[in-house]
């Protein structure tokens, strides 16, 4: 019975009657990609300059010399959820580049206990089945240099596919716009996600939905209302700044910072009815462009306590990386010491400069 109640709670959360605009719509697209970025608390908007720029700021694709590919894997919620990412990018000419990527965030083999109780009111475990829920994000990127010295821009076209077993599925479409500017070793970046808003249209399997409705007569906990069929993801703005310091002993230090803004009131460190802002800082210490040690602090949130008070939580991340002859292998441990409300995760990624195979 506990499993039944847990399942109904999860389905209710997914099928809760939606407002036209949801505060946390398509949040899987905001987690981030690349272990290097996670190690630096995702402060990549200003200095991103590889195949992963298609996610962080498509403008950075212009820094690719030829073509690159990237893969990433991470586990969330004690290995319950799997988060995977793959990307490819190629330079078109001296002034333009393109890229494509796919993100999958999914939970597999979930127990479907909606039919656990038969028509006679008996618990029948043979009626339990399995299903999966998965979110997919397909991104197509293009970047080009502007005639103005130091300025360049990039844009993303996104297709969102979300599937909840046989119960429901949706398609969504949206666009991102990015800018980067460099001068005197300083790098500035601006990324506007879902600049036109991202619009999702849901298709509810009414046959499966009716099975849940019919079960209400046997279990009043299964109180389901048909949800609305559309949702809109509001724009988010990220501003970044970075600077790299080179030292004489073959070492370097890359310092970066982000201000992440969304136009709604949340538990972010700075929160108003108009917008909320979450700052993040990161650093990467490198030796001979071969080995790297990274650290970052982000996800500053006001966390509500049991006594009604609030404390400031933050997410400290740590990462390491190795790069040799066009192959980079990176690892990050997020939420070191469990300082924030988020759960820690181990993130692994690999990036390859495909020109080494020619």
Automatic annotation (TrEMBL):
InterPro entries given in the database record? PorV
* Entry superkingdom: Bacteria
Query: Mind listing the UniProt keywords for this protein, alphabetically?
Result: Signal
Q: Which residue positions does the secretion signal occupy?
A: 1-18
Question: Pfam families from the entry?
Answer: PorV
Query: Mind telling me which SUPFAM superfamilies this protein's record contains?
Result: Porins
**Signal as a keyword?**
yes
| Chain ranges of the Type IX secretion system protein PorV domain | 25-178
User: NCBIfam families of this UniProt entry?
Assistant: PorV_fam
What is the name attached to this protein's record?
A: Type IX secretion system protein PorV domain-containing protein
